[in-house]
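Backbone geometry:

***
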Amino acid sequence: MIRARELSKRYGRTQAVSELGFVVNSGEICALLGPNGAGKTSTMRMLVGLSPPDAGRAQILGRPVALGAKVLGHVGVLIDGPAFVPHLTGTGNLRLLWSATRRAWPPPALSDALDLTGLGAAIDRKVKGYSTGMKQRLMLAQALMRAPDVLILDEPANGLDPAEVRTLREHLGALARQGAAVLVSSHQLAEVQQLATHIVVMNLGRLVTAGPLPELLGDTGTYRIQVEDSEQAAAVLRRMAGVAMVTAHGTEVVAAAPGVPSRDLIHALVTADIGVTSVQQASRSLEEVFLTMTEGDAKHAAR
């Protein structure tokens, strides 16, 4: 649905993007991550034809992308922040943007888009009176109102309150389940971890890693086990081969045991006549993974 093929872009002496390649398939929500200046917005602009690449190709739905390409009619875009005609109302601006499609008003998903962005009666007020957050929500509405097959969104949650962010997450998830492909850039890593199915991490214009989110978070081999007697449980687990560290807190035991299946830990505890009420495998947060990847690149670049 979305493909970057060896994309490169230079601005003067700055190499913004260098030989970047990745794909986003139907049903995936892919988060494009990187520190400020990593090249994320430059990448998104190339993907929708706003900026021609110096090398490589961008494709949407298998077709090459350029400014005005017909395939862009299937794409909802939010890039570069809100830009509207100030003396027109919110509805007037949406009608103006929709007129470029040469299709009859209203767009197929206008009602859902307006409900999602929560503009209410403000949609009939002139945009010059909108706050920055309201303009952002209007920009999000124009991206969603066409019921797109592909969504490319740069920081879409800016200006949304927590309830609106949750509603947006649920809506994007529903679109993906219906077969849409979503590429979203965000610095809100905790929100991304709840939203994304796949991750692309870039830094200094280059690809750092890409893949399904669960694979990138990885298996830490750490388990949180709720037991009846945590001190006795800790003593049992410390005697097991492959258990590197055990700590006990109240009714919980935390065991670091890379390569040891949880069933073996449970079996040892039950055999020792220790009641086990729950076992949960701890995983790394996206923030931890992201900082590990990008800070290493930053230190290397500084040298």
Notes: Residues 82 and 139 are 6 Å apart (CA to CA). The chain has a mean pLDDT of 91.
